[in-house]
Amino acid sequence: MTKHIGILTAGGDSPGLNAAIRGIGKAATRTYNMSVIGFRDGFRGLMENRTVRLEGNALSGILTLGGTILGTSRDKPHKMPVGGKTLDMTDAMVEVYQRNHLDALVCLGGGGTMKNALRLMEKGLNIITLPKTIDNDVYGTDVTFGYDTALSIATEAIDRLHSTAHSHHRIIVVEIMGHNTGWLTLGAGIAGGADVILIPEIPYDVEQVAEAIRQRHYQGKGFSIVAIAEGAISKEDAKALQDAREAIKNVKDKAARKVAKKHLKTLEASHKGNTDRLTRKLEELTHLESRVTILGHVQRGGTPSPADRLLATRLGTAAAELIHDGVYGVMVAARGDHTEAIPLKEVAGKRKTVPPDHPWIKSARVIGVSFGD
Ligand code: F6P
Question: Active-site residue among 41, 75, 135, 308?
Fold first, then answer.
């Protein structure tokens, strides 16, 4: 019996998504005789039943394309903005799944998508997920597709910043994406030879960062590159956030709890502009001219690297095979050269952070990189 499958891409786009769609689609149609449709713009397209056939020519010529041919959004099934209201549209999505006579839905996404996919699974849908994000923070997989491409882009940026920092004897602080994890900054920082690497998992002391730069200066190195993750945080701010979170847990009174929550929100919002503030502070402490470069969305754009195309193809074809075998409710994880089906329940709601004793950190420390701690 022919199986019918749907595919959607959700959350921030990531290089390799089209390679994964192609991998699923070609394996499903050519090897397993399935029919495949895509839903546009993530869970919103599923709710609105906006579909596209993913067969034959639709799957050709997309391997090397960045972004996602399906489009994406950050919409969540249970909190969907509809007509000026925020509604739980999970049941509407279940109905669309049934209307299309689907046997399985493949959701390509990061941590948020894993949680949203689990919600649909709990409503009885046959779900498979694939881990994508430039942040590499999806729990349970060795690596996510998108990470390798973003790593190359961020590394190349650091390479280029070196020559201008060197020529002007400046500090250049380069902000790298990664949400609340430091994988991208750590990888690009080491590969690009950054002198200081600041990641959320290791709160920094600005005095220590300045001291590392001063030491370089005394050794005749007139410039420094500081690679900072967008989520990196000073020790002081980390303590304030932790205290605010504890306060919410401990407060019983409803009104006081509201105030505590508001305080936490204010603290979180004040993180915006952190890289700028750090740069100004470093200039003040070291008396060295300093500049900021924020790499931003350029890290997510363009052609996927060969490693990401390969990974996405491996995971995509494995997903088609799992559907053929009737295995659902899993995320297809990369495990060495193999793939592994991990129960979605074990993945959703967790995040893979950089362990402070990770071997990459050890290597960086022994060659003199400062983590500002
Ligand atoms: O999760 C990928 C990511 O690029 C993060 O690194 C970053 O924090 C976030 O998405 C940016 O989101 P948006 O594209 O919605 O601004």
Answer: 135
- 113 and 194 in a single domain? The answer is no
Total domains in the chain come to 2
Task: Name residue 177's amino acid.
Answer: M
Q: Give the residue numbers spanning the domain of 68.
A: 4-146+304-347
pLDDT tens digits for range 250-263: 888 888 889 999 99
* Residue nearest to ligand 1 atom 14, measured at CA: 12
Give me the phi and psi of 210, to 5 degrees please.
-60, -40
Rounded distance, CA 97 to CA 89, Å? 13
Greatest Cα pair distance in the chain: 73
For residue 372, being part of any structural domain is answered with: no
C-alpha to C-alpha distance for 301 and 295, rounded to whole angstroms: 11
Q: Are 38 and 8 in contact (CB under 8 A)?
A: yes
* CATH code, 75: 3.40.50.450
**Residues lining ligand 1, Cβ inside 6 A:** 12, 110, 133-135, 177-179, 230, 300
125 and 178 belong to one structural domain: no
For residue 119, which of 46, 20, 41 has the smallest C-alpha distance?
Answer: 46
Run of H or E residues at 163: helix 147-168
Whether residues 88 and 213 fall in one domain: no
Same domain for 45 and 177: no
Residue of the nearest CA to atom 7 in ligand 1? 179
Query: Which phi-psi region, left, alpha or beta, contains residue 347 (left: φ > 0; alpha: ψ -120 to 50)?
Result: alpha
Task: Give the nearest ligand 1 atom to 184 CA.
Answer: 6
Whether 109 is in a domain gets the answer yes
Which atom of ligand 1 lies at the shortest distance from residue 230's CA? 8
Tell me if 131 is assigned to some domain.
yes
Protein residue with its CA nearest to atom 5 in ligand 1: 179
Nearest-CA residue for ligand 1 atom 12 is 12
Catalytic residue at 135? yes
Residues 241 and 342 grouped into a single domain: no
177-230 pLDDT, tens per residue?
999 999 999 999 999 999 999 999 999 999 999 999 999 999 999 999 999 999
Distance 12 CA to ligand 1 centre (A): 6
Backbone angles phi, psi at 204, to 5 degrees: -110, 160
